[in-house]
Write a structure and sequence with these properties.
Elements (H helix, E strand, L loop, with lengths): L4 E7 L3 H10 L13 E8 L7 H5 L5 E6 L7 H10 L4 E5 L4 E3 L3 H11 L3 E4 L2 E4 L14 H11 L12 E3 L17 E4 H6 L15 H11 L4 E4 L5 E3 L13 H16 L11 E2 L8 H21 L5 H7 L10
Parallel strand pairs: 1-2, 1-4, 2-3, 6-10, 7-11, 10-12
Antiparallel strand pairs: 4-9, 5-11, 6-9, 7-8
Length: about 325
């Protein structure tokens, strides 16, 4: 039977964290779905620490593992390899393999696609720990402390407790009613993926640079995309020495190069897509603080927009009037 959804995960030099991610995508953890509903394709770019293929094979569900040699430092080619292997009409992109997801993401994404085949589904992003992880060294946050936090909440038994040990990521610090900068657990129709040309392999900086922002921008700007946000679900970033999520020497200079490349390849300065979200799914009590924060910041934004006379969701405003989106250079 052909799966309805293909989940693409890309990993490099993070065997423990990526195995956590894969477990969170297994049928032992995801609720309300079966192995026939979705497949998970892990593409790992070879490093000195590759994953244990037997451990992946023991996971419950529909998993495929591709180990490849990548001469560059970007995951872009790996994303496209996985997309070509995917069998479903809908895709989920998890370019950073170090993200644990909550137990309802697959179920609610499939429900969104049942509502409309034009759904673009976002699971909001969080960082494990009290602060964003690019400050981990200054604040004494380590992989060992993170592992202890995960063990304390027994996340494999109740993934919604991840909200208790996390903070919002810099991609959506003001919550769900502000435009998202990017999404690290993004669901979209294959048709949209094909229309935007897949992953642009010119994003060749370490970690792919800002390829995640570009993919989200292009998918959200597609004239048919309708944004769904899963307020009670999320993807939780694990510390692993990532390019932009670690406190490393030269980080600011690298971020400058990443932004410069992003704007060059987009053909315009980057801006977060301003689409009005449809909220879908239950919100567990552990996520209430983030719900409250999102509402508070959303009300504040509404007041500011009223003062300036600008629509809260400018691109949604244009789409509803069937005007073309801003041009994007290829």
């Amino acid at each position: 039977m052909k799966p309805r959804l293909s989940v693409i995960v890309v990993a490099y030099d993070m065997p423990r964290q990526a195995l956590h991610t894969l477990y969170s995508l297994s049928t032992a953890y995801q609720t309300g779905v079966s192995a026939d509903d979705y497949e998970v394709i892990l593409v790992e770019n070879r490093s000195a620490r590759v994953m244990d293929a037997d451990a992946i094979a023991r996971l419950s569900g529909n998993f495929r593992y591709i180990l490849r040699d990548e001469p560059g430092v970007s995951p872009a080619a790996a994303i496209n390899v996985a997309a070509r292997e995917a069998r479903a009409d809908f895709l989920c992109l998890m370019i950073d393999g170090a993200r644990i997801v909550t137990p309802g993401v697959v179920r609610y994404a499939l429900e969104a696609f049942a509502i409309t085949r034009d759904a673009l589904v976002v699971a909001p992003g969080y960082h494990l720990g009290e602060h964003e992880q690019q400050f981990h060294a200054t604040r004494g946050y380590t992989e060992e402390k993170e592992q202890a936090l995960l063990e304390d909440i027994s996340w494999k038994s109740d993934g919604y407790r991840l909200f208790e040990i996390s903070c919002l990521s810099g991609a959506n610090p003001r919550g769900w009613f502000h435009p998202f900068m990017e999404c690290n657990c993004l669901f979209l129709p294959r048709r949209v993926w094909d229309d935007i040309g897949g992953a642009d392999e010119r994003f060749d900086l370490p970690g792919g640079g800002a390829i995640n922002l570009a993919l989200y921008r292009r998918a959200a700007s597609h004239p048919d995309s309708r944004l769904f946000v899963l307020p009670g679900e999320g993807s939780f970033h694990q510390l692993h020495g990532g390019v932009t999520t670690s406190e490393i020497p030269g980080r600011e200079e690298l971020l400058g190069r990443i932004l410069e490349q992003l704007n060059q390849l987009l053909g315009e300065p980057y801006r977060a897509p301003s689409l009005e979200p449809t909220l879908l799914g239950r919100v567990p009590a552990s996520a209430f603080p983030f719900l409250g924060h999102s509402v508070e910041r959303g009300v504040h934004r509404k007041k500011n927009c009223a003062k300036t006379g600008e629509p809260m969701y400018a691109e949604e405003f244009l789409k509803r009037r069937r005007l073309p989106p801003a041009p994007v250079s290829e």
